[in-house]
Amino acid sequence: MTIDLHAETRPTGVDAAVAAARRVIDALVRAGDISGADMADVADRLNAVADDLEDTAPPLDERLVDMWRGDGNTRHDPVTGPENPIAPPLRYEAVDTRTIEATTTLGLPHQGPPSSVHGGVSALLLDHTLGVANGWAGTSGMTAELTLRYHRLTPLFEPITVAARQVSVDGRKIRTTGEITANGEPCVTAEGLFIATYPPRPR
Ligand SMILES: CCCCCCCCCCCCCC(=O)SCCNC(=O)CCNC(=O)[C@H](O)C(C)(C)COP(=O)(O)OP(=O)(O)OC[C@H]1O[C@@H](n2cnc3c(N)ncnc32)[C@H](O)[C@@H]1OP(=O)(O)O
């Protein structure tokens, strides 16, 4: 069952440009300096795109207010956001009323050890997924503690599943667990303490 735990990716507008930017990031890391591409020309063309975007961007304050309107951060967060080129992006499904999961395949931009996911990237995916599991379960908060155990390398280039479950809510303290698995084997497990609090949205 697909649920509204992430913003839907639109085929046009900034979502389409972000999808293209993800391709560029992946292709650049893949190419390195041993490809046949004229990288000086590539840099000129990418800088021209950035110049155009910077020249037409709204003031930062205005954009921040816009970002936190409506769907809020699910459109721009760095894990699921269709507006954010550094998001893989993950697309969550509900497992039950307190548990969610997403399956994705990461590539070279997220590499740490050879052909393996960077440990900090795993932490990002888990922190966010635990946070969204809290939102799904009905009580969310800010990460106060996140404890990770890296059991084995998390592979690139093949499907991995990121899952999280809200375990308990005790006053403002929310305890949540999660894991990244590949081929059914745990690669990283996480335990999080979240404190129920709601930072003000930019206005
Ligand atoms: C359906 C879909 C929904 C989607 C939703 C969108 C999801 C988005 C997902 C995004 C996910 C991404 C998520 C992110 O990226 S969140 C960003 C990363 N986190 C932060 O930046 C948090 C920064 N820290 C703070 O803001 C404050 O310190 C917090 C809010 C955490 C607590 O400050 P606050 O002033 O409010 O609390 P308090 O001092 O009154 O303490 C209250 C109680 O808590 C206990 N305590 C506090 N800290 C700790 C600690 N470190 N270890 C153990 N215990 C701790 C404390 O002892 C006390 O217990 P007790 O004495 O009462 O027993």
From TrEMBL:
Residues 117-184 form the Thioesterase domain. Its EC number is 3.1.2.2. The keyword NADP does not apply. One of its GO terms (biological process) is fatty acid metabolic process. Keywords: Apoptosis, Cell membrane, Cell projection, Cytoplasm, Fatty acid metabolism, Hydrolase, Lipid metabolism, Membrane, Transit peptide. PANTHER family: ACYL-COENZYME A THIOESTERASE THEM4. It is an enzyme of class 3 (hydrolase). Belongs to the THEM4/THEM5 thioesterase family. CDD domains: PaaI_thioesterase (cd03443). GO terms for cellular component: cytoplasm; membrane. Its main location: membrane. It catalyses: (5Z,8Z,11Z,14Z)-eicosatetraenoyl-CoA + H2O = (5Z,8Z,11Z,14Z)-eicosatetraenoate + CoA + H(+); octanoyl-CoA + H2O = octanoate + CoA + H(+); (9Z)-octadecenoyl-CoA + H2O = (9Z)-octadecenoate + CoA + H(+); decanoyl-CoA + H2O = decanoate + CoA + H(+). It is a peripheral membrane protein. It comes from Actinomadura hallensis. Residues 5-62 form the RHA1-ro05818 N-terminal helical domain. It is found in: Cell projection, Ruffle membrane; Cytoplasm; Membrane. GO terms for molecular function: hydrolase activity. This is Acyl-coenzyme A thioesterase THEM4.
